[in-house]
Amino acid sequence: MGAARCGEVRPRSRLRGLGVGPAGGCGAAFVALLRATETGALPTRTRIVIAAPIVVGPASAAFGTWALTARRPLYGHDRVVGGWIALAATTAVAASAGPLYRARAHRRTLLRRRRELREGTG
Q1: I want to staple 64 with a disulfide (CB 3.0 to 4.6 A). Which of 20, 71, 83, 85 is the partner?
Q2: What is the pLDDT of residue 108?
Q3: pLDDT confidence of residue 100
Q4: Do 19 and 64 form a contact (C-beta atoms < 8 A)?
């Protein structure tokens, strides 16, 4: 009998959950540790960018735990839930890319202006 007929989760899905769970938890713990050891106040954008992996990591760990503890065939539900988590994480990264691009462009403008002022006064 196949794994789906016996009501068991396939080993491949279990291994995927076993990999995703600890990776998400360790990643979130690592970023949280970096944030905790940061001295001084950080800008708002930086705090948002640092908070994103701290939120996505436990979601990945919860997904891995759910996939491992499911005693029924998942019939692709694990991939759908994993896809939604990936979509949310990608959307968060893409949303932060716009302000980052604008900040870099503004910095280039300021550096160019500083160079012009130094050349004009020197």
Answers
A1: 20
A2: 93
A3: 76
A4: yes
